[in-house]
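Before relying on records like the one below, remember that each one covers exactly one chain. Contacts with other chains, cofactors or solvent are not represented anywhere in the record.
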Amino acid sequence: MNKLFLVLILFTTAAFCEVINVSPVGQNPINKAMLVARSGDTIALADGKYYEEVVVKGGVVLYSPNLFGAQIIGNGRNPVVKLGNSSKILGIAISGGRNGVVSSNPGATIENCWIHSNQGSGILAMNRLPKITNSIISNNLNSGIQATKIGSVEGELQHLTIAENRANGIEIDGDQEVYFKDCIFYRNGNKAIKSSDMQLILFSNSIFFPEQKEIANQDDLFGKPQFANKLFLLKDNSIGRNKASDGRDIGFVK
């Protein structure tokens, strides 16, 4: 293909991508924006509380520029957010749903999100796990992440703090290896990780408290982390400070 022609194609595609700004005014403002959004568009949420349930269209990014400034709150009966093909949620606090986020489509991504206080699981994944990075999944009444019949994984699960969920931190069944990296599993009600095949669960640089004997790895990662605030950020003297594979703290980092 002619290089100039290729550049023109890329420029034309980029020119049609839009940023749609939304504020928490009126009824279902996110859903109204989603009606007009197209693949490649970004929906940017102003700070505030959004009382609605959202299906993120394929290829659309749903984004809070101010970390956790936008809060999407469900009604306790349905999922708060459903992810489409190659859709992404970024920087949002999600709570109050039957499940916080439901994902079964390829290419889905959850990044810099706080998914908490849902009636079921924080994240419910079916058939495939979305890419989940630098997020908090806490205080959900079932498991933090519940993954069923997992046959593929979109990427590493890295820099997660999975804490104080009433059932398990992670509950997985399937035939696919799942790799956790630089994660904290803290005071989940049953187990940090429950799996139909524990040999498929891999991890590195992760903290488990309390200790789960069958996934013992490096002894120095089995200790009680000390948190500075409700976002589970580590105190200066805590285990896991500056010990992640990228030199940052283990778990969620701002």
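The chain has one domain: 16-221.
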